[in-house]
Write a structure and sequence with these properties.
Elements: H1 27-35, H2 40-61, H3 68-81, H4 85-98, H5 103-115, H6 119-132, H7 137-150, H8 153-165, H9 171-183, H10 187-201, H11 208-217, H12 221-234, H13 239-247, H14 253-269, H15 274-286, H16 290-303, H17 309-320, H18 324-337, H19 344-362, H20 378-392, H21 399-412, H22 417-430, H23 435-450, H24 454-468, H25 472-487, H26 491-499, H27 507-523, H28 531-544, H29 548-561, H30 568-581, H31 585-598, H32 605-619, H33 622-635, H34 642-653
Helix pairs in contact: 2-3, 3-4, 4-5, 5-6, 6-7, 7-8, 7-9, 9-10, 10-11, 11-12, 12-14, 14-15, 15-16, 16-17, 17-18, 17-19, 18-19, 19-20, 20-21, 21-22, 21-23, 22-23, 23-24, 23-25, 24-25, 25-26, 26-27, 28-29, 29-30, 30-31, 31-32, 32-33, 33-34
Length: 657
């Protein structure tokens, strides 16, 4: 949108008029003062202040104005604020007749006429000003605006042209007409006026930002980029401003594509202009074209001898956008080309993190369902890259974090619990009071649950919660404590912990906590011992400890005994999870999809379909997975899982990957 304050002169042109000798014409000063006011509420106060100043000066000089005029003007203002326009008009007409040279009387009377759509009266008032002024440019534009509002566009255009003809060599005249046109949303005509002004004045550097905004407003995004390139040709430091102005209009693939094309032409014409290249790269990222953006950043890195800094920064951008393979490539290139640069350590850590993300995105596993070691994949590469970091950068500030990440991989991916415990314990011992140590303590608590050392786990999570109190990690610890109470059948304590969780926690944790709350509310009973719920809690603990066969056997018994219990949807969801973990993928998908069919009001409906779609993407086909994800968008539009669903769809379609 066009910036309202771009050419108003606020803070630059507004000057309080000085007291003048009697008989000196104050009209031109008043006119300039009023024209510069951009905001109605501010204008009203300033006009009143100006009136008091002018009347005071006139009284001191010649006593030409009655003192009652100030009070009458204030009363008229109050009528205007109360929308009693006719009462205000009568008073303002009298004031203007008494003192036609006082511009504030004219200004408020014209506005009052306009408020009640008495355009002919307002136009007649403006005509009086045109006849009395030696430089009536602004009054021509005012008359044009009123004629347009009246419905006479042809006559309005004549007046705008007449305003330009008063001084066709002055940029300010074109600005005056441009502002009048923008006020009426006549954007195409405003473009015509400014483009004609550039030609008439023979200066193609004029009106660049205003034209760019107008072209955006009229969906001519390529031409808008042309104007911004003109601006960058004069001052490359304006790049952030250009991005900000463009950003609000890049809301369709067409607008982005059109902008990219013009930016590419600009780079081809001026290959050494870095701001052109950075604008093109930014536009490519806006269009999720990360690989093409990487090529542009490579050029910047080479031309300006950035030694990997630009590539590293882009790697972070690509990672934030979910383009993990492109981010991985950017970090890898930094290490390959600039191994001694300041960016190299962070690039190596980033490379390992992207290898993790890419493995997760591809659904890679270190072991198959039967426990057989799979071929080398991105998980192995991530672990090796982290280990390489420890060797090459032992004094780096990220050393504790990398060490902790190795422990987490050993625990959650490679299932080497002994190695994981050793590494995580080292992080806690060697780097206390660090974020890595807190995360390692949390991981050690999870590991203790897996090993059925529930009291050790409780101690770890309790200490962590006491130390942190708030934040995402604190809420994760709080939820783990809720689960421990749940496993042990203390359902009231479990409910208490979930209710205490912060609302701003991560989406996954929030969903888990809500799921537990709903289950506890719905599933207490039917006997005072809560037998079904206690047995179900035991099954969940066995599942977490990777005792899948035992958990599945106990779940079948529970479903046979309490098939109509309110836990039925939770039990069906748990069965699907166990089927997937034991290798029966087809049955798992079918069971997940049964949850919303058999329990249409269940809170687990969206989650079960997400799980089904995830398995379909890995083991069946992308088309079936996409179909399931689309059904989630239609059937559960308010689910907290919707962002995750949209991201999965984007990845399956290959957008930005």
């Amino acid at each position: 949108m066009v910036r309202a304050t771009k050419h108003t002169g606020l803070g630059r042109d507004i000057k309080a008029p000085r007291a003048r000798p009697a008989g000196e014409n104050l009209t031109e000063t008043h006119r300039r003062y009023a024209v510069t006011i951009a905001f109605p509420s501010l204008r009203a106060h300033l006009l009143l202040g100006l009136l008091l100043l002018v009347l005071g000066g006139q009284r001191a000089a010649a006593q030409n104005v009655e003192e009652s005029q100030v009070g009458r003007f204030q009363l008229a203002e109050s009528f205007l604020r109360a929308a009693q326009y006719e009462r205000a008009i009568g008073m303002l007409e009298d004031l203007y007749a008494e003192s036609p040279g006082t511009h504030v009387f004219y200004e408020r009377l014209r506005e009052a006429y306009e408020n009640v759509k008495r355009y002919d009266a307002a136009i007649a008032l403006v005509d009086e000003k045109i006849a009395s002024e030696s430089a009536p440019t602004s009054f021509y534009t005012e008359k044009a605006r009123l004629l347009f509002l009246k419905g006479d566009e042809a006559s309005a255009r004549i007046q705008w042209q007449r305003a330009i003809e008063t001084n066709p060599g002055s940029p300010s005249v074109y600005f005056l007409v441009y502002r009048s046109l923008v006020q009426l949303r006549l954007f195409d005509y405003a473009i015509e006026v400014l483009e004609d002004g550039r030609k008439a004045i023979d200066n193609q550097t004029l009106f660049q930002t205003d034209l760019a905004q107008l072209y955006n407003l009229t969906s001519q995004h390529g031409k808008a980029v042309e104007k911004y390139l003109e601006l960058l040709a004069l001052n490359q430091n304006q790049l952030n401003y250009v991005k900000t102005q463009l950003g609000g209009f890049l809301n369709s693939p067409e607008s982005i594509s059109e902008s990219i094309e013009i930016a590419e032409n600009g780079v081809a014409d001026e290959p050494l202009n870095r701001s052109y290249r950075e604008l093109l790269a930014w536009l490519l990222v806006e269009g999720d074209e990360y690989r093409e953006a990487l090529e542009v950043y490579r050029g910047i890195d080479r031309l300006d001898r950035e030694e990997g800094r630009v590539l590293f920064s882009f790697g972070l951008i690509a990672a934030d956008g979910g383009a993990y393979d492109v981010a991985l490539e950017a970090f890898d290139e930094v290490l390959a080309r600039y191994p001694e640069s300041a960016s190299a350590p962070e690039a190596m850590r980033g490379l390992a993190m992207m290898q993790e993300k890419w493995a997760e995105t591809l659904g890679e596993q270190v072991f198959d369902i039967a426990g057989t070691r799979q071929e080398r994949n991105h998980w192995d590469e991530a672990l090796e890259t982290y280990q390489r970091f420890l060797i090459e950068y032992p004094q780096h500030a990220q050393f504790p974090d990398v060490l902790r990440r190795i422990g987490s991989l050993q625990q959650d991916v490679f299932f080497d619990l002994t190695a994981a415990e050793k590494v995580l314990t080292e992080v806690v011992a060697r780097y206390p009071q660090t974020e890595a140590a807190d995360q390692a303590a949390y991981d050690l608590g999870r590991l203790a649950v897996t090993q059925n050392r529930l009291e050790d786990a409780r101690i770890q999570f309790s200490r962590l919660l006491t130390r942190l109190r708030t934040g995402d990690l604190a809420d994760l610890a709080r939820y783990e404590l809720a689960q421990l109470h749940f496993y042990q059948g203390d359902f009231e304590a479990a409910d208490s912990f979930t209710r205490a969780m912060q609302e701003n926690t991560s989406t996954d944790t929030a969903n888990d906590a809500i799921t537990m709350k709903v289950m506890l509310i719905e599933s207490m009973g039917p006997d005072s011992l809560n037998t079904p719920l206690r047995r179900f809690a035991r099954i969940q603990l066995l599942t977490r400890q990777r005792e899948y066969d035992a958990a599945l056997h106990q779940l079948d018994d529970l479903m046979e005994a309490f098939g109509q219990h309110s836990l039925a949807d939770d039990m069906l969801m748990q069965k699907a999870d166990l089927l997937a973990r034991t290798g029966d993928v087809e049955a798992a998908i079918q069971t997940y999809l049964e949850v919303p069919l058999m329990h249409p009001t269940s809170f687990l409906g969206a989650r079960s379909m997400v799980q089904a779609a995830s398995l379909q993407a890995r083991f069946v086909s992308h088309d079936e997975a996409l179909d399931t994800y689309q059904r989630i968008l239609l059937g559960y539009p308010g689910s907290l899982l919707i962002p995750q669903v949209r991201e999965a769809i984007r990845l399956l379609r290959g957008d930005g990957v």
